[in-house]
Amino acid sequence: xxxxxxxxxxIGIVLLSILILCxxxxxxxxxxxxVRSAKEWALLEEKGYINLVEAQDYRLNAPYWxxxxxxxxxxxxSGMGIDNCSLTMRKITIDVEDDNLIICLDRAGYGLSDxxxxxxxxxxxxxKYRTALKNGGFEGPYIxxxxxMAGVYTTYWESVYPDEIEGILxxxxxxxxxxxxxxxxxxxxxxxxxxxxxxxxCDVGLDRFFPNVYWSVLPETYTEEEQxxxxxxxxxSSQTHAxxxxxxxxxxxxxxxxxxxKTTDIPKTYIGSSxxxxxxxxxxxxxxxxxxxxxxxxxxxxxxxxxxYENMLPGFQDFWQANxxxxxxxxxxxxxxxxxxGHLTYQNCPDEVGEVLSDLIEKVEKGE
Length: 368
Description:
This protein is of the alpha/beta class. Helices cover 51% and strands 12% of the residues.
């Protein structure tokens, strides 16, 4: 019996030691996170990445560049889980800043915006966008540049408040189409325990030890200072209550946008960069960009023969025609452009996207 007690005691000591080490690690991580965050915020403020504006219950970050007296106000909206919108999207807008005002508006829990436990529905997100822009003194109508899931919110915004928008550039945005919503299985939603662990990892800086798991990886074309800014933006917001709520509400947001969708004459351009492949060369270009991303992250590449790519191409084309084209056509007055550069097309091909933005601005001015 004494032998059993000794074993139990030894196991207890081991478990207690592990617990103490975990607590110590979290404390060290928290201290490291707070110290580095203070330095990062100082850098971001110095470089103009902080402009917190009231959106009723909390503040959204709306840094801006360009000409406050410019012809147009261009509002950049990030895709889901993208915290470096104010860094990466400026690569697109830099050439039009002399004549336009550029705002990178982060929703709750993104970038340097405040986090919130408020349910992140499509309607609420758009209302917070509108409120923040009004309180920040940014008058419309706006040209919206929306990546991925932000396209869903922009579709709703355009349909409900068309007078506030004069042009839209959809960057590989999520399609809104009947029968194309995400699975409505409640089991796919993040539970409270998982939510606690994710937000804890962000709050105490555990994300900093696993950046390739939680954060996107920038191309080599970005400078060392830009890499630092990228880290700062993600390290202070990567796993938040607002993001988790938004993730859980994806299906409802798509349905809300669909139920309110109205065809308009507002000039729009949709850049398809993940499925819109007209030729085999388009698909190969997409795969090369994908493999480049994988190499940066230290992950396996997707290398296939030409024959395998030829067999894949019809599947991509059918998927594009079935899931994207009907949605884009339902928007009205929307040009489709293919830039096969992966979902983060604005990051991978900023010059090409910048040219498309300039063309859209010209259409807006001509009233086309």
